Amino acid sequence: MRGRCATRAFETRPGCRVMMRRTRLEQAEHIAVAEARWAAGETQRGVAAASGVARSTLQAWRREVPHGDPPAGLAAFVRTPDGMSWLHRMVWAAHFSITLRAAGGTRLVSEFLELSGLSAFVGVSDGAQHALNAALETAVVAVAEAQRTALAEGMAPRQVTVCEDETFHPGICWVAIEPVSNFILLEQYAADRTAATWTAALDGACAGLAVEVIQSTADEVKALRRPAETDLGAHHSPDLFHGQHEVSKATALALARDVRQAEARVVAAQAQWAAERAAQPVFEARAARRPAALTARVAAEAELARAQARQTEARELIRELGLLYHPYDPQTGHAQPVERVAARFAAVWARLHGLAAAADLPERARERLAKAERLTVQWLATLAFFFATVTAKVEALDLPPALDAAVLEQLVPALYLERVAARSTGAATRQQVQALSAALLEPLRQPDHPLQTLAPEASARVEQVAGACADLFQRSSSCVEGRNGQLSLHHHGRHRLSDRKLAALTAVHHFHLRRADGTTAAERLFGRTHPPLFEQLLLRVPLPPRPRRRRARPPKPAYLMPVAA
C-alpha cells in the first residue's frame, strides 16, 4: 500500500461498482478511530466492519513506514488527522511563500522539504511539485475571482484615478493601478501597443466595478494618453518623475563630465606648481611675482568651483520642480493659484536654460530640456482640474458658506499635507509638514467650531469627501513602476510569465498583501473585508502526495573494467 492511496467501493446502480480513492486525511481519521476502539477492547473485525474499511487495509495503513528515518514522534503525529492537516498547511505555505511571494521555483520548494525533513512524508520530485504549484495557481485565481465578484456586489460608486504604464517581459504587459488603494485594475498581456487595445483592456478590467475613471497619471506615450482623454473623457496628468528625469538626463552626465575634467586640470596644475617651487631656491621667491604655474592653478580651481556650483544648482532645480508642484504650499498650507505656480515654473526653466548656456551643453541636452518644459502646460492644467473638481465636490455637500470655506481652506489642505508628509523621505521635512497639517486641523476640532455641530452621518460624509479630494491630486505613477519591478523579479527566472501565473500574482497583490494598518488592496477599494486568501486556498488545494519508493542506483562501472570473454 505504500506510495498509493487505498480505495473505497460503493454502488451507484445495481451491478456497477465504482472505486474511489481515500485521501490521506480520511485514512488518518480512520486510523485514529480504529486505534481508539482497539484500545477500548473491540476486535479488529468489528472495528473494520463499523468503519466500512477492510481489516487488511486498516492494518496496511498502520504499518506504513515513512520514507527515510524521521523521528518516531513526528511520524506518529503525521499519521493523525491533526498531523496531516499540519503537513498540508506546511507544504502549501512553502509553495505560496516561495513561488508567489519570493519569485522562487518548485525546486526551491523541494529543497526546503528535503532540508526540513518533510520529504519523508511528501513527494519532492519535479513532477509532483510542479503539479502542486499548478493547482495552487489555479486555486488562487479562482478564489480571487470569487472574492472580487462578492465584494463588487453593492460597491459604492467611486471616481478614481488610474496610474498606467506598460512593461515588457518580453511580451507587452499593460498595468493600471488605482493609486489610493493600490488595487491593480489591469494587469495582462497584450498583442500590440495601440490605444484601441488599451481601451478595450481597461474597459474589460473595470467591468462589474462601480468605478468611474476621471483622471489618468502616466507618461506621454500616445497609447496611454489617448484612451484617457478621448475614449474615457478623463483628465490626463503627466508623471512628474518623467519630466524630472528628462532634466536629469539633459544635465547630469554633461555636468559630471565637466566636474571630472576640471578636477583633472586642478590636479595637473597643482603638480606643475609644486614642481616649479621645488626647482627654485626658497630665498629667490618674491611675493610680487606670480609664476605662470600658480596662475594656472588658481584658474583651474576657480573653474572647478564653477563646475561644481553648476552641478549643485542643477540638482536643486530638479528638486525644486517637485517642491513647487503642489496644489497647497507645503511651507504655509495655503492654496497655490495656478498663476503663482506658473511663475515659479518659469523661473526654474529660465535658470535651467541659463545653466545650459553657461555649461555649453550639447544640442541634444537642450532638446531634452525643451521636452521637459513642454510638460508645464499639462501640469498647470492638472492643478486647474484639481481645484475645479474639489470645489464641485465640496459644493455638492450643500453646506453653509462658512463650512464650505472651512472645508476648502483648512480640512482638505490639512488632509493633503498629511499625505505629503507620509510620502516624504526626510525626517525634518516630514515633521514640518505634519506639524503644519496638525495646525490646520486644530481649529476644526474645537467644540465651538461649526463643523462640530453637524450630525455624525453628515460629519462622516464631509470627512469622506475631504479625503477623496486630498487623494485626487496624483502627480506620480510610482506605484506602477514599483509593480513592474516586482514582476521583473518573477519573469527573470521564467523568461515570460504565463497568463495563469500573472493572474495568480495579481490575486496575491489584491487579497494577501497588507499595509501597516492591516488592510489589503481589495479592502481599501471595495470598503469591505474578505476572508484570508491562504485559508480559502487550503479548502481548495489537494493534500500533498506521498513520497515514491526510491530505488537504489547501481554503481557506475569503471570505463577500463575488463569485459568477461
Brief sketch in words of this structure:
The protein is of the alpha/beta class.
What does this structure look like?
With 565 residues, this protein is an alpha/beta fold. Among the domains are: 1-64, no CATH class; 66-155 and 498-548, no CATH class; 240-374. Helices cover 61% and strands 9% of the residues. The chain is built from 21 helices and seven strands. It has helices at residues 24-39, 44-51, 55-63, 72-78, 81-101, 106-116, 126-152, 195-206, 222-231, 240-279, 292-324, 338-359, 363-373, 376-395, 401-423, 427-441, 456-472, 478-492, 499-511, 521-526, 533-538; strands at residues 7-13, 16-21, 158-168, 172-178, 183-190, 211-218, 235-238. Strands 5-4-3-6-7 form a five-stranded mixed β-sheet, sandwiched between helices. It has a two-stranded antiparallel sheet with strand order 1-2. Helix 4 packs across helix 5 (81-101), helix 6 packs across helix 7 (126-152) and helix 7 (126-152) packs across helix 19 (499-511). The model is unreliable at 1-19 (pLDDT under 50).
Describe the protein's topology.
Blueprint: E1 7-13, E2 16-21, H1 24-39, H2 44-51, H3 55-63, H4 72-78, H5 81-101, H6 106-116, H7 126-152, E3 158-168, E4 172-178, E5 183-190, H8 195-206, E6 211-218, H9 222-231, E7 235-238, H10 240-279, H11 292-324, H12 338-359, H13 363-373, H14 376-395, H15 401-423, H16 427-441, H17 456-472, H18 478-492, H19 499-511, H20 521-526, H21 533-538
Parallel strand pairs: 3-6, 6-7
Antiparallel strand pairs: 1-2, 3-4, 4-5
